Amino acid sequence: MLPRTLRLCACALLAALFAALLPGTAQAAERTIAGGRLDWGVKSSFQTYITGPIAQGSWSLNGGASTVGQSQFRFHSAQGTYDPDSGAFTARYQGGVRFTGHQEADGNLQLDLTISNPSVSVSGGSGTLYADMRSKDRESGAITDSRQVPLASLDLGGIDLRGGTGIAVTGIPATLTAEGAVAFAGYYAAGDALDPVTLSADSTAPEPAEPTQDPTDEPPADTGEDEEEPGGEAAFATAAVDWGVRRTFREYVSGTIAQGGWELGDGAEDGGAVFRFPEGEGTADPEAGTLDAAFAGTVTFTGTDLDLTLGGVTVTVADGTGTLAADVTTGGDTAEDRPLVTFPAATDALTPDDGLLLLAEVPATLTEEGAEAFGGLYQAGAAMDPLTLAVALDDGAELPALPDLGSDPVDAQAPEPTPTDDPAPAATDTENASEDTGGTPVALIATGVGALLVLAAAAVTLTRRSRRAPRVATTPEENDPS
To answer: Per-residue confidence at 18, pLDDT binned at 50, 70, 90?
Structure first.
């Protein structure tokens, strides 16, 4: 039998060795998803049906959703969690699309379906796409609102999302679930193929915990001074106006006809479906329902027979109506302060909340001057994209965030189209990994086995030596042959 000291050393070495071999013993911390996009056409044949001669309907976007590519809707501002060890993640996106059609003589819509705020949960090679659904029964006309319905099953076969700092997957096959078929008002059956899903999500490492405040620390003394309630016309801290001009105009600019694009300048920001004109300065009187503001930023649209710049944006509100005007430059000629669109702005809608005056996604109508500015592409009275006006009446109020599309996906993975019967090559070096060991490199296993063999050989040698060497009794009990 080995001496006690040697046995303890051997046990410690074995424990350390097995701990190094076992997968998952050194886990990376769960990361926070912040920013990203999800592109999905829902079902392209459904879009064709909606806008075709039978349904004679349309679709519209809300919540900052936009369009991208061929008949895809882009949802934004991913939030969730990501586990780099397993590749599992959950991401929630914002924005919605509403489909309407089959309008009756009295204006009633037989088809009215809204899909919004999709979320994705993935573990292993499969996942589920959920969404808030508002649907209308085709027979009874009853409206059903359901939150986070499991709408589609996702197949991520062949995708390995472990070990990254972000997620980017393109062309994920999607299949309608039984719950999704019900929420889809019975237009399709469970198991029907939906459009593939493309998504991305940025992630950040968890922040270190903040030190706990000493309970004996006294809070700062209250000055006892009461802030004065604002009243009358006063200058505000800052403001921004978000406006996408018109979705079909953006698609025309970037499409096959104009073959162009747009550039932002002087601080303007792109939120996907909207352009933000920031750094608003001016005055507001919420009680009187008036506002006068000027904003920074320019957007220039260029393409075939197209050169249009909008800048010097201003917004005025009075008598329940708002007007957005801009300096319009075409062909080098500028027309200053041209009113482009009007929007409803009732006095009660201008009531601030915690110092923030907010008109969110209010409908905008093209003016006659605006129709001229767009070269007659649209007639006066046409519906343009809704706009959002946010005014911080004091320094403590925060403007709403723009849609966060995250970073541009690089080297996005794509699921395998069909499984292959070809056997995988055997792992022969440290770069290959075995799935049976949870990703433990083969070289590490070999090293561990070798160490075990060396340890076993040493133990045998020491045992033989201990049997041959004469022992000197140290206690009376050790001389007892029993």
So the answer is: very low
Whole-number average pLDDT of the chain: 82
Identify the burial level of 129 via C-beta atoms within 10 angstroms of its C-beta, where 0-12 means exposed, 13-18 middle and 19 or more buried: buried
| Each residue's pLDDT tens digit, 334-359 | 999 999 999 999 988 899 999 999 99
Q: Answer yes or no: is pLDDT of 161 > 70.
A: yes
pTM over 0.85: no
> Average of pLDDT values for 156-185?
93
- Lowest-confidence pick of 37-41, 187-191, 394-398, 444-448: 444-448
Q: Which amino acid is at 226?
A: D
Q: Identify the residue with better confidence: 201 or 27.
A: 201
**Tokens for 155?**
């197949």
